TrEMBL record:
InterPro entries associated with the record: Kinase-like_dom_sf, MAP_kinase_CS, MAPK, Prot_kinase_dom, Protein_kinase_ATP_BS
Domain Protein kinase span(s) in chain numbering: 20-283
Family: Belongs to the protein kinase superfamily. CMGC Ser/Thr protein kinase family. MAP kinase subfamily.
Keywords from the UniProt entry: ATP-binding, Kinase, Nucleotide-binding, Serine/threonine-protein kinase, Transferase
Source organism of this protein record: Zea mays (Maize)
Domain of life: Eukaryota
Family matches, as PANTHER family: MITOGEN-ACTIVATED PROTEIN KINASE (PTHR24055)
Binding of ATP, residues: K50
Name of protein: Putative MAP kinase family protein
Gene Ontology MF terms in the entry: ATP binding; MAP kinase activity
Pfam families, A to Z: Pkinase (PF00069)
Keyword Cell inner membrane: no
């Protein structure tokens, strides 16, 4: 395809469009499109995330703004870097937004899927980078809340970078944060047990460390550790592997759904209890 045609299809009427030469589309989703491009001013290869109709839904606009604000403030070798944000010529034409990121070759999901004879040294280096990045994020009182292999970018030299801060939250003190979920936080398979079935919960940075543990187990085995089909099944898988928690631990669970599920697991009545009270669609 003619490069000029690629660019005209990718960019709308943005004054800085001529600065970037689009080479190919590398990702698509409900948010929009990601393209690989070259910054003609610097010669650097970049990724351009095009988010269409950004103001159509308040929740989407909030998520995008949150990610941009956090990544402009958080600067670390283990976090993806925002290079530039393209603004429209006028506010009246502000419908789409283009965020310029450093370009990475793949993500950890693809690395695990490829299963290219990773060694123990690879595993150690990957885990080291993840924990180092999370230490920096948590030191800034930020919880990522959506760690999963697809949100960890990767290069052929084994460099990893954490991305997608759209669901991240800031905690303003050392006490556990209480947040009302307006969306489910973290893909279910990587979600900490204290978040399962909960729309209102107190949580700590431990929720991210749980996700890191799930990712590391998947890296070692090549398959998800807790591939739950719904919240009840998710908790079933956790207790099958780790054992049922003590009554004291269960009593500290804020979520009524999670609390009742754990109690029922102890008495081997979980499936009966939740087939009667909750349908899979509830989760």
């Amino acid at each position: 395809m003619d490069p000029s045609k690629k660019e005209s299809e990718f960019f709308t009427e943005y004054g800085e469009a001529s600065r970037y030469q689009v080479s190919e589309v590398i990702g698509k989703g409900s948010y929009g499109v990601v393209a690989a491009a070259v910054d003609t001013q610097t010669g650097e290869r970049v990724a351009i995330k095009k988010i269409v109709d950004v103001f159509d839904h308040v929740s989407d606009a909030t998520r995008i703004l949150r990610e941009i604000k956090l990544l402009r403030l958080l600067r670390h070798p283990d976090l993806v870097e925002i290079k530039h944000i393209m603004l429209p010529p006028s506010r009246r034409e502000f419908r789409d937004i283009y965020v310029i990121f450093e370009l990475m070759e793949s993500d950890l999901h693809q690395v695990i899927k490829a299963n290219d004879d990773l060694t123990a040294e690879h595993h150690q280096f990957f885990l080291y980078q993840l924990l180092r990045g999370m230490k920096y994020i948590h030191a800034a009182s930020v919880f990522h809340r959506d760690l999963k292999p697809k949100n960890i970018l990767a290069n052929a030299d084994c460099k990893l970078k954490i991305c997608d801060f759209g669901l991240a939250r800031v905690s303003f003190n050392d006490t556990p944060s209480a947040i009302f979920w307006t969306d489910y936080v973290a893909t279910r398979w990587y979600r900490a047990p204290e978040l399962c079935g909960s729309f209102f919960s107190k949580y700590t940075p431990a929720i991210d460390i749980w996700s890191v543990g799930c990712i590391f187990a998947e890296l070692l085995t090549g398959k998800p550790l807790f591939p739950g089909k719904n919240v009840v099944h998710q908790l079933d898988l956790m207790t099958d592997l780790l054992g049922t928690p003590s009554a004291e631990s269960i009593s500290k669970v804020c979520s009524l759904v999670t609390n009742e599920t754990l109690i029922s697991l102890v008495t081997n009545e979980s499936h009966f209890l939740y087939s009667r009270q909750y349908s899979v669609s509830d989760f």
